[in-house]
Design goal:
molybdenum, iron ion binding, Aldehyde oxidase/xanthine dehydrogenase second molybdopterin binding domain-containing protein, three-stranded mixed beta sheet, 271 residues, elongated, AldOxase/xan_DH_Mopterin-bd_sf, alpha+beta
């Protein structure tokens, strides 16, 4: 989650300037190139940076337009830049996102999760997940599919494994290392993971008609808790217990599953 920003920005610059993507190079972010840069959070980095890049590239296009008209429509990019350089036309443009450049909008998504639960240990396997997400007209579909996958798996950690425990006397966090704090690993990823972006649904107020994809799928991961609830109810029925709602929190750890499944010690006796 959060990867691919440079690729999207390069694609925006190439699109606005009308040049091949290989002609665009992204420099390292620092306080010289961006003295008052903003954070990349809340799924908005692609849009905010993309808007800023489009503004700067539009400025360059306006400066280069007289040169293009003089050289003709068949002039190569290198020829246009060389001519502009010889005329001392500034080839540097700086711009920034400002409040009001982007309107708010809603993002929609659907998910279906299939989960297999081991009642003896409380461990689980996520057999299959299907997601349909509204990304508007995606800026870069391959990257956005990866964003949806990453956000969903991040949600799996929040809802299933990442337990925070604190010392009741001092407040010191006890789950402070990988031995006792468990973010999702390679085997926590759904075995059959299917992502689809909603087609032919442009966002009228989005940047280049797109929508953010960085974190919305995080919310879809709550579906695994409902799948867990169904599995626990099935186990309780097998144990002969009456059906009642089992409260599952975030995270629902294997310990919680074992304690909620209604299993009794005598049921595990070897005969």
């Amino acid at each position: 989650i959060g990867q691919g920003l440079n690729t999207k920005v390069a694609q925006v610059a190439a699109f606005v300037l009308g040049i091949p993507l290989e002609r665009v190079r992204i420099e390292t972010s620092n306080t010289i190139t961006g003295a008052n840069s903003f954070l990349t959070a809340n799924s908005m980095a692609s849009e905010l940076v993309g808007i800023s890049v489009r503004k700067a590239c539009t400025t360059l296009n306006e400066r280069l337009e007289p040169v293009k008209q003089r050289l003709g429509a068949n002039a190569k990019w290198e020829e246009v830049i060389e001519s502009a350089f010889m005329q001392s036309i500034s080839l540097i443009a700086t711009d920034a996102f400002k409040t009001g450049d982007q309107q708010n909008y809603s993002i929609f998504g659907l998910s279906l999760s299939e989960l297999e639960l081991d009642i003896l240990t409380g461990n689980h396997l996520i057999r299959r997940v299907d997601i349909l997400e509204d990304a508007g007209e995606s800026l870069s579909p391959s990257i956005d599919v990866g964003q949806v996958e990453g956000a969903f798996v991040m949600g799996l950690g929040y809802y299933l494994t990442e337990l925070l425990l604190y010392d009741r006397q001092t407040g010191r966090i006890l789950t402070n290392r990988s031995w006792n704090y468990h973010p999702p690993g390679a085997k926590d990823i759904p075995i059959d993971f299917r992502i689809e972006l909603l087609q032919k649904n442009p966002n009228p107020v989005g940047f280049l008609r797109s929508k953010a994809t960085g974190e919305p799928a995080f919310c879809l991961a709550v579906g695994v808790l409902f799948a867990m609830q169904h599995a626990i109810q099935s186990a309780r029925e097998d144990a002969g217990l009456p059906r009642e709602w089992v409260r599952l929190g975030a995270p629902t750890t294997p310990e919680t599953v074992v304690l909620s499944a209604g299993s009794e010690v005598h049921q595990f006796a070897l005969k």
